[in-house]
Amino acid sequence: MIDRRLKVVHYLNQFFGQIGGEEKANIEPLKKDGAVGPGILFQQMLGQDAEIVGTVICGDNYFNENLETAKEAVLALIRGYSPDLLLAGPAFNAGRYGTACGAVCEGVAARLAIPAVAGMFPENPGVELYKKSIYIIETKPSSMGMKDAAQKMVGLALKLVRGESLGSPAEEGYIPRGVRKNTFAKERGATRAVDMLLLKVKGDPFVTEYPMPVFDRVEPSPPIADLSQVTLALITSGGIVPKGNPDRVESSSASKYGKYDISGVEALSPETHETTHGGYDPTYANEDPHRVLPLDVVRDLEQEGAIGNLYPHYYATVGNGTSVANARKFAQEIAKDLLKDGVSAVIISST
Amino acid sequence: MAKELEKEGILTVHICTIVPISKTVGANRIIPAVAIPHPLGDPSKSKEQEKALRRKLVEKALEAMQTKVEGQTVF
User: N or C end of chain A: which has fewer CB within 10 A?
Assistant: First the structure.
């Protein structure tokens, strides 16, 4: 298949590039022909099929303080070798080095159209910044993990350059990029689910097929002493919209929300409102929309003085398959509205 | 959504059926609801009973608003 040795360029920082330590972190990009520092180990692992023809080195501070210029200069030096492949780092848990490796790999993959592989510890900020656009082999936090990192980086890089199909991120050792790929499993879903459940019941380790994304947290708001003074707003992710769904809020993976006037509206009815939410039986919500959006009792509580007043609009979207990013965007826009109008408390009802 | 609103300083209570999801998305005051297709109602009950049930849940939400919490709390 390969009729010549593959040409590889290796990107390193000033330290691994054997220029110097922190005092040399300001050096501008430079190149050295052949393998340098950890490149010697990488060359051993690449074997006969590929050769590190050059090493491009840049100081970590220089790169991060001059992001665009440094990236362009590094890309120009890399291009000068006309490589088939770029390896960057590994940067382990070095943040500046990691972001540099990420930027270089992203630039190389996009502009030189050759595979690029970096290596980083998962908490390296370069991971959060670049994991979606490039391949990053997961490494140990320090250079103690050099050998293992080099082995995995070389393995993945050679597969990419040869156009071989890749296994899952766990099999290949890289940090998941959020790409979904259909595959055939040996056992059907029910069998796999029961196997997993049995392991869980026994307390044995098991691997989920659908890891949940990690969400950040926010400090709880302080309590409100006197609710009779506040304006309360209602939001629902249960898809209660005016009959006919005027804004065409989607039944799943919603890309929008609706804002609907309820000033003077005492109650909802099947004639005026319905749910557009897919994924659950809409019968009950359509029969009585209050089962999802409790307007009737909130109006009662308003009249009794338990709350100051109800905001004259409610907001509705559909939670079904809607991305966290969209939900966040909706909430940010709604929050602006509510703050402007002095709303300090919200009830969200979800199906 | 609850989290984003709270970030902006708007106290938010989440009435929902699937409490673990509410926890995952970061709601701080959580009121467990009746069922997925009718979180604030129960079609097996009479209209009056259903409204009383719904009122209880909303009152619980208002109580949650007046309660100081440390971290995510299910009421």
Answer: N
> What average pLDDT does range A221-249 have in this prediction?
94
Class of domain A6-172: alpha beta
* Residue B34 distance to chain A (closest CA, Å): 9
Here the tokens at position A243 are 């009959």
Please report, for chain B, the start and end positions of each structural domain, with discontinuous segments joined by +.
2-74
Residue A129 has pLDDT above 90, yes or no: no
- Provide the H-helix boundaries in A60-183: 60-65, 67-79, 95-107, 125-130, 146-161, 169-172
Backbone angles phi and psi of A313, in degrees to 5: -130, 150
Residues 6+ apart with CB under 8 A from A34: A52, A53, A54, A55
CB atoms within 10 A of CB A214: 6
**Domain map of chain A by residue range?**
6-172, 227-349
Residue among B22, B27, B58 minimizing CB distance to A294:
B58
What are the backbone angles phi and psi of residue A55, rounded to the nearest 5°? -125, 130
Residues B60, B58: Cα–Cα separation, whole Å: 5
> pTM, whole model, 2 decimals?
0.57
Rounded Cα gap, residues A250 and B73, in angstroms: 31
**Residues A135, A173: Cα–Cα separation, whole Å:** 10
Mean pLDDT (whole number) for A70-90: 97
- Is the minimum CB–CB distance between B30 and chain A shorter than 8 Å? no
Mean pLDDT, range A203-213, rounded to an integer: 84
Q: Beginning with the edge strand found earlier in the chain, give each strand of the sheet holding B11-16 in spatial order.
A: A258-261, A309-316, A231-236, A345-350, B11-16, B29-32, B73-74
